[in-house]
Amino acid sequence: MLKSLSIKNYALIDSLTIDFGSDLNILTGETGAGKSILLGAIGLIVGQRADSSVLRVKSEKCAAEGIFEIRNYGLQNFFDENELDYEEVTILRREITPQGKSRAFINDTPVNVKILHDLGLKLIDIHSQHQSLELNEKNYQLQLVDLVAGNSELLKTYGSAYKKYLSIQENLNKTLILIDQSKKDFDYFEFQFSQLSDARLLEGEQEKLEALLGKLTHAEDIKTVFGQAVQSVSGDERSVLSVLKENLNNIGKLKLVLPEAEQIFTRLESVYIELKDIAAESAAIEDRAENDPERIEQVNQRLDLIYSLQQKHRVTSIAELLTIQSDFEAKIQLVSSYDHEIEQLRNAIATQKVLLNELSGQIGKQRKSVAPAIETKVIDVLRNVGIPNASLQLKFGRLADFSSTGLDEVSFMFSANKNQELQEIGKIASGGEMSRLMLAIKTLITDARSLPTIIFDEIDSGISGEIAVKMGVILEQMSKTIQVLNITHLPQIAAKGKHHYKVFKFDENEHTFTSIRKLTEQERVEEIAEMLSGENYSSTAKETAKELLR
Fold it and tell me: How much is the pTM?
């Protein structure tokens, strides 16, 4: 529960600290006194949005701090998960700087505002007049059903599966767009690949062909030059080899008588062998050198193909052309592989749909199972607060596709009168009926949810008289199991409070301020008398106030 609240430099509040009781706390005050300001400050400490516009003095920071008693509410895991020190008396603090920056603290440990908000949702339910309008919305109605049905864990599991389903669906859509674009390019890829593949390019081929073309185009010159070389070296009786042979024979005869002749003979013999090899190789070259116009044409055509492909793809080597060929092949294979990928994604979606169907079925079953209890509870409360002929029916429908909350939609169908057709709440409920409906809904919430504190901001709007008394009784009963803070303009409800606080404005040093104080028993009598008949209340109003308090 909220034990105490401290606020500094917020809107019209300079500085205040107020303690609250564990049961029914009533807050009253004139219209415009600043009750909504107080609610705004409480909203700050439970993570609601704010900026520097809330600062009373723009050059100083604003601070709001709440001290909460949280034992027996199962919050240890929340603190462990967020690496926070668990304290049975926990302090939530929020600061807004003049620059508009927000800082949040839990037990003096800095946290981001989301963590503060998540903890705040587990500590306080703030009902505002705006929330009464939410009762018309189907999403809000579905949340109420889920709360009563205890669907929290199931919805968490479903939510994870639903996110995965959306993610796979998104991947499939992206892949379909990609394949559509790729298939437009497929013919181009295939043509380019085929042209390169059909060329049967070999790395190093270009260099060999260019060398071969050089030989073919100079065949006559080669034949002439090497023919002459053969003729000179070994062609006739006076050729180089013949002369060397003769000299070898002569020198060989002197080897026995002239030692130096041995060395000369060996060297000359080497020259003779080398020249003989040269003559043989030259003869072979001469024989191979053929003037072959047809072969020249073939080589030229092949080189022309290679050059044209290089020019087309703006490269200078066959190695680069082969790389481009591989790239086109990879793109073709990628397009071909999309079919398999799409099949896998569609299978994954089908699997996820089976899981979502199963989970949404379990969620829907639990929702429908608590519908009669919700209808009975709400009707009982409505009859206790002056709508004796109230009827409520939860009408379930099925969505065409999965949503973040399953396959169900629900409508609260309501009627306040006998033999009146049930219609959606927003189309039929008056302002006073809506307030009482909201109170009935809040009793459902407090029954189903272990919350320390609930705050009502004029939930009694549109009612008066005996109905107000009955609503006060219900609020009083609620406060036996949960701390209730109730802002009201009705004396019948104010009198039911265990603790009574007055929100008021005052002027000081040419400035207007808002503050709050707890009323004594005598002050309560005077406040309720004033609520009954105005500032100048009569003794009769005072006696009525005492009677209400009794």
Answer: 0.65
